[in-house]
Amino acid sequence: MERTPAPLRQALEEGDTLTLRQLLEEVHPQDLLALWDELGGEHRYILLTLLPKGKAAEVFANLPSEAQAEYLKTLPPWRVRELLEELSLDDLADALQAVEAEDAALARRLKEALDPETRAEVEELTRYEEDEAGGLMTPEYVAVREGMTVEEVIRFLRRAAPDAETIYYLYVVDEEGRLKGVLSLRDLIVADPRTRVAEIQNPKVVHVRTDTDQEEVARLMADYDFTVLPVVDGEGRLVGIVTVDDVLDVLEEEATEDIHRLAAVDVPDLVYSQ
Ligand code: ATP
Ligand code: MG
Fold it and tell me: From the alpha carbon of 182, which atom of ligand 1 is closest?
């Protein structure tokens, strides 16, 4: 792993806030995460405080849950507020669950600070098991109706896009919210503007249920080569999407567990057991 880039390290050590802010405008959150482990606690705190809020949220979302809980306790209140606003709902729900495990009163206060709609969505998400699709999904998908024209959908997308986790796939739902079809952004863009969604949607949607095990979700994504899968409830209503980034995190954790399990195997036993 690369060592902390010299200018960043120097600015951190000198407490040169101005230079730090400039450097942090340019840095990619993943690059910071790559060197996170070699930073001291104080420098991590400074970075999380000085980063532009969107990047701070991206770094935060990738930290272990104990660290997240700690930062939500100790970061300045304005930064905590920004983090809560910037995080996508699935990451927000995970972070609040982490806090809840350690400090229920703080978790309650943080939830109360959310706007009512976000709070309701987060509470909904925290009902699901962590290792099932429901625990990985976010409700920030784009849903359209069969009867809409391509032109109407594109107009709708302009408004919906800023808050959506992804706009590459649009899901078609009926009046009960049941999942009826899917189309890609490409399908949409190449179609005649007067075409109805019903004519270009794919009605055979590969999907999972809220209680589908996360390993099964990962396998379906790999088999079908989809980067996003829709999640339905017991009645077939669309309730969220799982994106590949969350699934990759799952696979990484499981691979690490497997390696630890292998490493713990008692070799002499294996050798002499025949
Ligand atoms: P292509 O690869 O054919 O150029 P594309 O780039 O528009 O298509 P892809 O992401 O490759 O989009 O998706 C291919 C097709 O798969 C799209 O038409 C999309 O509607 C469909 N699709 C996306 N998600 C699902 C899903 N969960 N179940 C079934 N079909 C899906
Ligand atoms: Mg494609």
Answer: 20
Q: Which helix (H) or strand (E) holds 205?
A: none
C-alpha 184 to ligand 2 mean position (Å): 9
- Cβ neighbours of residue 195 closer than 8 Å, sequence gap 6 or more: 149, 150
The alpha carbon dihedral of 50, 52, 57, 60 has a sign of negative
List the structure tokens of 2.
């690369």
Q: Which ligand is nearest to the CA of 186?
A: 1
- Per residue in 133-152, pLDDT (tens digit) is 999 999 999 999 999 999 99
**The pTM is what?**
0.76
Spell out where the chain has E strands: 143-144, 169-173, 179-184, 208-209, 228-232, 238-243
Q: Quick one: which atom of ligand 1 is closest to the CA of 187?
A: 7
d(CA 4, CA 9): 6
pLDDT tens-digit profile of 221-261? Answer: 999 999 999 999 999 999 999 999 888 887 777 777 777 77
Cα–Cα distance between 259 and 249 in angstroms, integer? 15
pLDDT mean over 57-78: 95
Residues with CB under 6 A from ligand 1: 169, 182-184, 186-187, 202, 204-206, 226, 229-230
ipTM score of complex: 0.91
